[in-house]
Amino acid sequence: MIASEPELRGLMRASLDGDAAAYRVVLDRLSRHLRAYYRSRLARIGRSQSEAEDLVQDTLMAIHTRRHTYDVGQPFTPWVQAIARYKLIDHLRHTRASMADVPIEDASDFAAQDDHTGAESAHDLDRLLAKLPEKMRRAIRYVKLDGLSVAEAASRTGMSESAIKVSVHRGLKAMASAISQGRAR
After folding, report:
1. pTM of the predicted structure, to 2 decimals
2. Which domains does the chain have, with CATH numbers?
3. Residue 30's Cα: distance from chain center in Å?
4. pLDDT, tens only, 141-178
């Protein structure tokens, strides 16, 4: 079933008031919508489903780390749509895809789609990150959450750029594995 704006907004309000169960439901619902959104956009330009899964995880992490910025007096789905759109643009920029190839202006597609085929339960991203070794956790946080370049992350951590790239890749892969095996709780 497709989650409506009032339902998602109510769940997000409850989660901001400390309701962990409501937060899990919000992330679960959003993960399905995000998965469908990214898969449809990336499929149009011949990109893989694994890229869509990476984007889903990146977006859920961004929502998690920025949830305190959500204004409960405003609609929730446009806030999520903006994050999703920027994550897609950023991904395409970093992978050197032509942004003209992906029509991202159809925000209604996000609300109209729901994907039940992937991993359907969302997990607390802090717990997923906490299961990773410190180097991976820092690399993911700097590059994927804070938006630093690989060079900037390497400079802050004292690691090589190659080590940052490997840590991010392996960390995201470990997180995806934990999600698929249901171990993030």
Report:
1. 0.53
2. 5-120 (no CATH), 126-180 (1.10.10.10)
3. 9
4. 888 777 788 898 999 999 999 999 999 889 888 887 77
